Amino acid sequence: MAKFDNPQPSPRRPASIRVYVPSAVTYDLNKMNTITANILKQLGCLGCHSGWLLEFQSITQFAVDPATLEPEAIYSAGLE
Fold first, then answer.
1. What is the DSSP string of 22-77?
2. Phi-psi category of 32—alpha, beta or left, where left has phi over 0 and alpha has psi -120 to 50?
3. How far apart are CA 65 and CA 71, in angstroms?
4. pTM beyond 0.70
5. Mean pLDDT value of segment 9-38
């Protein structure tokens, strides 16, 4: 078995965070920057998101409440 003089740990895979945003916000850079800052604040690191993979998903699916006819965003199965 080979011996290494300076073994390095395997690089840590970034934690993946999915963020659902309304379509109207998706193309507004100022709002996306604010959302990113708020997410990083929740993660405890305002300076950068190194180690975190932020996946922004635009909300494109809705279900309509038959009683009120109001649309409600559908994020993904099992999230609510």
1. EHHHHT-HHHHHHHHHHHHHHHT-SS--TTEEEEEEEE--EEE-TTT--EEE---T
2. alpha
3. 6
4. no
5. 83
